[in-house]
Amino acid sequence: MDVRFPPTVMLIFSVMAVRVQSHGIDGGIGCAGCTLVVSLAQQIGEMNNEPIIEAMQRLCGFLPSSYQPACKMFVTEVEPVVQRLIDEKLFTPDVACHALTLCSVDPDQKQCHLYPLPAGTGLATSLSRVLSSGKAREARARKMQKLGSDICDYFPVLKEICQFVYERVDDHDPVMDADVDRFSVIETLRGTHFRGRDCDDTDPSIHPGAKPIDGDRQRDSNCNGIYGVDPKSGSPYEELLCNSTTQLGMILLGDSAGAHFHIPENWVSAPDISLGAFEILPQVLADEFDWPYLSAMTGYKNSSLVKWPTDSTYYKFWQMDHCNHRDYQNLGVNGARSSAMNSTIQYSMARDQKLDHPALVVYSLIGNDVCNGHADTIAHMTTPEVMRANFHSTLQFLDTRLPPGSHVIATGVADGRILFNTLHDHIHPIGKLRSDVTYEQLYDYLDCLQISPCTGWMSSNETLRNLTSERAADLSKAIEAEVHAYKSKNFDVHFVRFDIQDVMKKWVKEGGKAEDLIEPVDGFHPSQLANFLMAQQFWEDFEGIYPQGIVKRNPHNDQIRQLFGDQGGY
User: Fold this and answer.
1) Which DSSP helix (H) or strand (E) runs through 331?
2) Which one from 126, 256, 338, 527 is the annotated catalytic residue?
3) Residue 152: closest CA among 141, 143, 163, 137
4) Which residues, including other chains, have CB under 8 Å from residue 25's CB and lie 6 or more apart?
5) Please, which residues bridge with residue 148 across strands?
6) Is 70 helix (H, G, I), strand (E, B) or coil?
7) What is the CB neighbour count within 10 angstroms for residue 328?
8) Rounded CA gap, 178 and 326, in Å?
């Protein structure tokens, strides 16, 4: 795969990165990122018996070539500070990032640090030796800010492009979409990794999931790769091979779990990092760290970059009926909760009641209505009344978009106590070399910076974990109540209890380990293996709801493969 991108796309990456820098306190995400990178460089130096500055340069060399100049410029800028800390025997990743002003101690806040501070010396004393005055700190902060300044402000000529990107990213539509039908011809930037590939990006009537135009005699209007006329009968292939089946699209309205958020483990584990580890960095950034093409709902291919195969609801739809090819939309958004779904995300769904086939919509927000990084986390959780009202509004919206014969399945909110219970005393990948960082320590560090994905569950406070799960259970009851009360015009609606613990118990019974099902880097999301197993569990749930089968097996599948091969791929 060619992962080198043109300048416009590199600009988009920069815009997306800048937009998350302000989260948290005491430096927030920027502080945590600095601490992890400096720690990784320190460990690489230990492994290769070289000074940390050389290890930082080595780490820069692991990056794609387009990222290396900025990385090396950063190393050159920080070298004097890092070297002085080493000379003074004050160096730790936390102290270094405070000295670089990427970390701070905000008024009335705690000192956040992942590693022990220098023996016999507090953080303030350590910093006073390298930043002797407030003016020195301000000067250092200005230099660091310049290195990471908002590219849109630094180059005013790019402001119009930046505004375009902001709007598309906020709307969760494909950034590259010439005919504005919400389907794209490129993989990333909310393209074909999230939605089926558009087969004509100049005509909005042509897109995955559309009913065929004139039987697709002349062209493929629904992008499933089936078109033309049978020379013997004179009938369109679309009619011969697809009309006897019930075609059904797969649409996820979800969060980062449904989009399959994933950070490669070898990015943060010093013993596992290697040249080429970051080759996929541009793609991962452009996909917002999501891997929907490997997910439990819309996955469609296997990848050598992960350890486990892919299975999904969409893939099973395609296996049952090849006429469903490319008819998937993964509208999973990192951090999505019911209010965001109701106000923006759902409107990026592409479906026309008259011109498109029916679809299965899975409404699955499994955590963010109780998860946040605030210190007073419970006060920022969604209440059951608001959850039900938001879900009701989404159902009303779906009634205006989904074709008759569609289906909606809503899942409950997860019980996330399993995260801490499973991982708290395990070593995190950043501590693999020296066995010096547990998940509990990392959770507490992220909590201190108020950037934890879920303060309520990723906490050493058992009472808080239990209260969070109680609220999650109440939200699930609210969703289920609305499922039973709602009267739809165009779809049936059902509730499925989401409990990854059931999947985990089955896996452990088969000889696996519970931690295999949790993403190792963030310690929060379902892993690739969990997505594979959840796809199977969801299919069992669907079979229970639709005993006659939600999708019928197409008797013409073999003929479709013979005539159209891979149907144009993805």
Assistant:
1) strand 328-332
2) 256
3) 163
4) 106, 109, 449, 450
5) none
6) helix
7) 31
8) 19
Residues 22, 28: contact at Cβ < 8 Å?
yes
Average pLDDT over residues 287-308: 94
H or E, element range at 254:
strand 249-254
Residue 235 has pLDDT above 80, yes or no: yes
Tokens of 471: 């609220």
Angstrom distance (rounded) from CA 286 to CA 288: 6
Condensed to tens digits (0 to 9), the pLDDT of residues 239-261 reads: 999 998 889 999 999 999 999 99
DSSP letter (8 states) at residue 253: E
Q: So what's the pLDDT on residue 127?
A: 83
**What digits encode the pLDDT tens for the residues 121-166?**
778 888 887 776 667 667 766 776 666 555 455 455 556 656 666 6
How large a percentage of the chain has pLDDT more than 90?
A: 81
User: Distance between CA 134 and CA 128 in Å, rounded?
Assistant: 10
E runs forming strands in 355-512 = 359-364, 406-411, 491-496
Instruction: Let me know how long the chain is.
Output: 570
Taking the C-alpha atoms of residue 256 and residue 245, their distance in angstroms, rounded to an integer, is 33
DSSP letters, 418-434, are HHHHHHTTSBPGGGTTT
CA dihedral 49, 51, 53, 58 (to 10 degrees): -10
SS3 of residue 356 by DSSP: strand
Question: Is 132 considered catalytic here?
Answer: no
Neighbours of 89 (CB within 10 A): 10
Return the ∠ at Cα 341 (arms to 336 and 342), rounded to 5°: 150
Q: Quote the radius of gyration of the chain (alpha carbons, Å).
A: 25
Residues 314 and 299: their CA atoms lie apart, in Å, by 7
Distance CA 568, CA 185 (A): 12
pLDDT digits (tens, 9 = 90+) for 537-548: 999 999 999 999
